[in-house]
Automatic annotation (TrEMBL):
Keywords: Membrane, Transmembrane, Transmembrane helix. Belongs to the glutamate synthase family. It comes from Williamsia phyllosphaerae. The lineage of its organism: Bacteria, Bacillati, Actinomycetota, Actinomycetes, Mycobacteriales. PANTHER family: ARCHAEAL-TYPE GLUTAMATE SYNTHASE [NADPH]. InterPro entries: Aldolase_TIM, GltB, Glu_synthdom, YerD. Residues 154-470 form the Glutamate synthase domain. This is FMN-binding glutamate synthase family protein.
Length: 531
């Protein structure tokens, strides 16, 4: 027995020794390989001419590019405070996620915001608040020429097309909208099964490319449009003149992203660059726009037809109003997109420096319609960074009848604000056409999250209005929203801004409006100089 133990020990020791030798040899070869690779990289860094940093700091200089690549994540998770992140801060993102998941959406220990900072806004509550209404209010869309009016929710899914978002994300949004009874805007990428399969009410957006209703040469095709617009799921049509993220320019979908499926729904060649022109070919003047609206309404069987725009020159809005008066017709609704909008990819110069913010755009359109005596027949939608109940109430005070949300709805589906929408590398499968990435998105779960987020947010808007002593959005007034204008003074929107009376522009334009009113021409979007 002793000899057996000695033999086993000897053999085992020999095996361990041999194994250790093999392991040491493997480690040595791996180390050599790593050294050779590092040396090769260092040599390449020294001879390449593209990056000066690497020529001076070979090998080590790559740390700079690594840190730069992960900077957004470091900023979002470790550096930014709860209330100062951009485009949406941590508090807002958290409230969206929590409401979508159906968990608590409250905070404690007081606000972290500086409520004495210039620019801070607050709503005016009442000493005698009312009980919250059981049923959310809705807005009827449809003017005197509309035979199929639509009842719109206070909050809806804003325009996002197939191509910008994955089919899975759009399906989840559509199912959520169907469950919650709110509308889903298609974006300008065409009317696709992803916008229709869930059973939601659909707003079909028609952009300058007329995707889904175009001829081979890119012009509007009335026959194809009529066939699709009369679908019972399509409740309204929206003509996109411009959008907040990039007002004044069109769009380009690179050839690599134009799959056979996207090409089919857009009516364009597959695997070729898809271009949205900066302007429409169906009209070029305000009067022609109004007539195009009337044409689409007739082709769709009398459904509401509206326009969407980011406001630029006030005289152009007034020109559309003059055309509406001259033609005794016009859009049933106008969606105002703020310059802070941003689901579309755009050059930095356009994202940061072109177009009016939503607040200014809303008040411009509202006052123009009121001043021309048209506000009773035209509804206004607000689109641009709407995410919370207070956002809804503020926009209604500023002139809107309903609101649309894009990025907030994306977050309800799972977006983490990685800001890689334009790269096709969305880490959660929302803004991508990569099947592997889109597969990560569980449609039934995300659809329910969209429904819960919408329900909770509208309920908060209703609760805010009840706390203000109101039982209807119609009772909201500019005096109920106040803003700090300097370190010691806060004033209401009724005091800060000018609000026109019904028909005032037709009778006697105020001094601040005289010049723009004179420059507005129903037959031209260009400013007309009148002496």
């Amino acid at each position: 027995m002793v000899k057996l133990v000695v033999l086993v020990s000897t053999v085992g020791g020999a095996v361990l020794t041999a194994g250790a030798a093999v392991f040491a040899s493997a480690v040595w070869w791996v180390a050599c390989a790593l050294f050779v690779c590092a040396a090769a990289v260092a040599v390449y860094d020294l001879v390449q001419r593209r990056h000066s940093v690497l020529r001076i700091y070979p090998l080590v200089g790559h740390m700079r590019f690594l840190l730069e690549a992960i900077r957004p994540e470091l900023q979002q998770y470790f550096i930014e405070r709860n209330y100062d992140g951009r485009p949406f801060d941590r508090d807002v993102r958290t409230i969206i996620y929590e409401r979508a998941k159906g968990i608590h959406g409250e905070l404690s220990f007081g606000t972290e915001r500086d409520i004495e900072q210039v620019g801070y806004e607050h709503l005016v509550h009442s000493t005698v608040p009312l009980p919250v209404a059981d049923t959310p209010p809705r807005v009827t869309i449809g003017g005197p020429h509309c035979t199929q009016p639509y009842s719109m929710s206070l909050l809806n899914v804003s325009s996002m097309s197939f191509g910008a978002l994955s089919g899975a994300a759009l399906t989840a949004l559509n199912r959520g909208a169907a469950a919650g009874g709110f509308a889903h805007d298609t974006g300008e990428g065409g009317l696709t099964p992803y916008h229709l399969s869930g059973g939601a009410d659909v707003i079909w957006e028609l952009g300058s490319g007329y995707f889904g209703a175009r001829t081979d040469d890119g012009r509007f095709d009335p026959t194809t449009f009529a066939e699709k617009a009369t679908d019972g799921r399509v409740k309204a049509i929206s003509i996109k003149l411009s959008q907040g993220a990039k007002p004044g320019i069109g769009g380009v979908l690179p050839a690599a992203k134009v799959s056979a499926e996207i090409a089919e729904y857009r009516g364009v060649p597959a695997h070729e660059k898809c271009v949205s022109p900066a302007y429409h070919s169906a009209f070029s003047t305000p009067r022609q726009l109004v007539r195009f609206v009337a044409e689409l309404r007739e082709l769709s069987g009398g459904k509401p037809v509206g326009i969407k725009l980011c406001v630029g020159d006030r005289s152009e809005v007034l020109a559309i109003c003059k055309a509406m008066i001259a033609e005794n017709d016009g859009p049933d609704f106008i969606i105002v997109d703020g310059a802070e909008g941003g689901t579309a990819a755009a050059p930095l110069e356009f994202e940061d420096h072109v177009g009016l913010p939503l607040t200014d755009g809303l008040m411009t359109v509202h006052n123009a319609l009121v001043g021309c005596g048209l506000r009773d027949t035209v509804r206004i939608g607000a689109s641009g960074k709407v995410a919370t109940g207070s956002d809804i109430v503020k926009r209604l005070i500023q002139g809107a009848d309903f609101t649309n949300a894009a990025r907030a709805m994306m977050m309800a589906v799972g977006c983490i604000q990685s800001q890689r929408c334009h790269t096709n590398h969305c880490p959660v499968g929302v803004a991508t056409q990569d099947p592997r990435r889109a597969r990560a998105l569980d449609i039934p779960d995300k659809a329910e999250r969209v429904h819960r987020y919408h329900q909770a947010t509208v309920e908060q808007a209703m609760q805010l209005m009840a706390s203000m002593g109101l039982d209807s959005p119609d009772q909201l007034d500019p005096s109920m929203l106040r803003k700090r204008v300097d370190t010691v003074t806060q004033r209401s929107y009724a005091e800060i801004h000018e609000w026109l009376d019904d028909g005032e522009l037709l009778a006697d334009p105020p001094v601040d409006w005289v010049r723009d009113w004179a420059h507005a021409d129903a037959d031209s979007f260009r400013r007309t100089v009148r002496h």
